[in-house]
Amino acid sequence: MLVRELVDRFEQFAPKTWAEPGDPVGLQLGSLDAEVHKVLVTLDVRPEVVAEAIKVGADFIFAHHPMMFHPAKNLDLAVPQNQMYATLLKHDITVYGAHTNLDSAPGGMNDWLAAALGLHDVTGLVPSNGITATPEITMGRIGTLAQPTTVKAFAEQCKIIFNVQGLRLISHTPDAPVSRVAVLGGSGGPFYQTALAKGADVYVTGDISYHPGHDMIAAGLNVIDPGHHIESICKLHLTQLFQQWVQENDWPITVVPSALNTDPFTFL
Q1: With 90 as the cut, is the pLDDT of residue 71 above it?
Q2: Which of 105, 150, 163, 239 is 20 to 30 A off residue 258, Cα-Cα?
Q3: Closest CA to 130 of 98, 110, 101, 96
Q4: 120 is in an annotated binding site
């Protein structure tokens, strides 16, 4: 089968037009008319992931994070990123990225995160700015825990849920009660006021920087930052979704999740 057959089905689930403006989603390298036999699902496209694709015999990499956030200024192969592009071309591997369109899709990234946190009565958090997004297409989710807990205890649960060695807790009231939780995968710091306005006791998101952290505390919002890499939850869920489509359509392809951890951070 061709790459475009899987891509067309995926874009029914999460259209590119639901992506935030300027987000470089879609085909990253290769051809939609290339044949595909084995798909490797990953969070990031890094040199070690490309090596993994070659090792397992994948000819299509499906990633959450687009490979080309920043265009190459030259094709100097001494630059690791450029060498990675050359390796992909040499081995005829096509790369596709689904980013904020997957974040906003019903049943997509943020629903997976909300389910992992055990949230009930889940609704959308931030309206999508995608050009065809309707009001129900939203980034982030907010919902209620089955059993109330405390900020600190919930942070400890997040470490277990997301299998992280450590996280950052932004709070002056770690013993405060928690029942309503907002979550937004990736870098959700700019949307903390929306989480606060919608009644969140805790906001779970990544990449909080220093001064916004102060602002969050001043506003009275507790924030848990388990990192950006928690979005790796997509590897299992996308693999399961694609395998379902393989069975429904009798596609002659194999789909496997990347076994690599691409989190650049280590806690000491």
Answers
A1: no
A2: 105
A3: 101
A4: no
